[in-house]
Amino acid sequence: MTEKSVHRSVLISEVINLIQPKSGGIYLDGTFGGGGHTQAILEASWPLGRVVAVDRDPEVKEFAEPLKEQYGQRFSFQILGYDRVDRLETQFDGVLLDLGLSSDQLDRSGRGFSFARNEPLDMRFDSRGGQTASQFLGQASPIELERIFREYGQDRHGGQLARKIALRRRSEPIRTTFDLVSVVGTTQPKVLAKIFQALRIAVNDELTRLSHGLRVVTECLKSNGLLAVISFHSLEDRIVKEFIRSHLEPITKKPIVAADSEIFINPRARSAKLRGGIKR
User: What is the per-residue pLDDT for 108?
Assistant: First the structure.
């Protein structure tokens, strides 16, 4: 039985207003997640609009199955990173990237994205290969650890934490989320959120993939095609802002943010920023 996603996609109406899906158009959802944005685009482009959805995380495939049953040939899904969609050899009228973690990844994946539960410290979006967060913490030099905590987590105590990790791993590996929390030495969510964010970015090479992926998806846009990107922290937003300014015609002078009513229903929307551009 296919399990239903618990993820609530953010800024859905704002994305639709930005991309303006039309019947007969073809659109890319480069970060499928729970499928909320994909379904909204399919509905807005009725009756002939198509959506190609991709995601690096193989576990989201189960959320694509009900959409395939409902929309048939109008919808297709592949396990693929948005930075590799040039392999699809398709030109799109609009592209959406939602760079946030889904609620399914945070709450149900068991891969250690959240510090609220004791889980294996994995943090890979695609668990079929690559280095886990535990392995990264066991092998990275203290200098590299300090850099990622300072740059990706904006943690001014990154050097101190790097030294604590280096000391801990001499006696035992840091295998779980609670192992890492114990090394940090606090349960304050604001502190832990930045540290877990930094580690996740490093493990998945997110910022490099974003810079490269923006170029790839833009090359796959038709002339006058629209790119919409939702980011959730300043590092991502800065990359998106500069890319759109340099390579596209911006259509958002300032980032679009969630209304208070949406934030009340979905607190994770609070940090979401939507920017868009047109390919000329």
Answer: 64
pTM: 0.92
CA 178 to chain centre: 24
Last residue of a domain, one of 172, 189, 205: 205
Checking if the pLDDT of 7 tops 70, the result is no
**How far is it, in rounded angstroms, from Cα 85 to Cα 231?**
19
Answer whether residue 1 is part of any domain.
no
Write down the residue that tokens 């009900």 correspond to.
66
Question: pLDDT (tens digit, 9 = 90+) per residue, 192-226?
Answer: 999 999 999 999 999 999 999 999 999 999 999 99
Picking from 205, 228, 262, the residue at the C-terminal end of a domain is 205
**269's tokens:** 């929307």
DSSP string, 10-50: SSHHHHHHHH---TT-EEEES--TTSHHHHHHHHHTTTT-E
Summary mean pLDDT of the chain: 94
Return all residues near 277 (Cβ < 8 A) that are at least 6 apart.
Answer: 226, 227, 244, 247, 248, 249, 250, 251, 252
User: 106 pLDDT band (50/70/90 cuts)?
Assistant: low
Place of tokens 């937003």: 237
Distance CA 164, CA 48 (A): 57
If we measure between CA atoms, which residue out of 25, 30, 3, 18 comes closest to residue 74? 25
Where b means 16+ CB within 10 Å and e means fewer, 19-44 reads: bebeeebbbbbbbbbbbbbbbbbbeb
